[in-house]
Design a protein that fits this description.
Length: 135
C-alpha cells in the first residue's frame, strides 16, 4: 500500500514539474533582453514553418526600427530563425519558447539578437502594431 501511495505522489509531483520545467526562470529571459547587443523591430512579410513538427520558423521582413546595435539598418531585409512548433507537436522540454507559426504571423516583431544576428534564448516578441504608433 505504501508503495502505491509513494508512486502516486511521485507521479503527481513529476506531472506538476513537467509544466514548470518547460521554461527557465524568468530572470534568464529578462537578462537576455536587457543585454542583447542587437534589438530590432521588423515588419513581418512571411513566416515559413519548419518541415518537421517542430524546429525554426523563418520569419522574414524588413527592419522598421533599430532599438539597439549597429548590425542592421532601416529597411534592411532580414530572416530570423524563431523556434516554433506545429499545432499538436510535442517539442522537447527545456528553455526554448516554442510558438506556433500562426502566432508569429503578426504585422511586426521585436527580435533580441546576439552580435551575429542569432536570436537569444527564444526572445522574439510578436507585435500587433509598430511600437510607439498611435491608432
Amino acid at each position: 500500500m505504501r508503495r502505491w501511495i509513494g508512486a502516486g505522489i511521485t507521479a503527481a509531483v513529476l506531472g506538476m514539474a513537467g509544466e514548470a520545467a518547460a521554461l527557465l526562470a524568468p530572470h534568464y529571459y529578462e537578462d537576455a533582453r536587457r543585454t542583447a547587443p542587437e534589438v530590432i523591430v521588423i515588419a513581418v512579410a512571411a513566416v515559413a514553418p519548419p518541415p518537421a513538427p517542430f524546429g525554426d520558423c523563418a520569419v522574414s521582413g524588413a527592419v522598421r526600427r533599430v532599438e539597439r546595435g549597429g548590425l542592421y539598418g532601416l529597411g534592411q531585409s532580414v530572416t530570423i530563425a524563431v523556434p516554433c512548433s506545429r499545432p499538436g507537436a510535442h517539442p522537447p522540454i527545456g528553455g526554448t519558447i516554442w510558438r506556433t507559426p500562426d502566432t508569429l504571423a503578426t504585422p511586426f516583431g521585436r527580435a533580441y539578437l546576439d552580435a551575429a544576428g542569432t536570436l537569444i534564448l527564444s526572445q522574439y516578441e510578436p507585435l500587433a502594431a509598430l511600437p510607439g504608433d498611435r491608432d
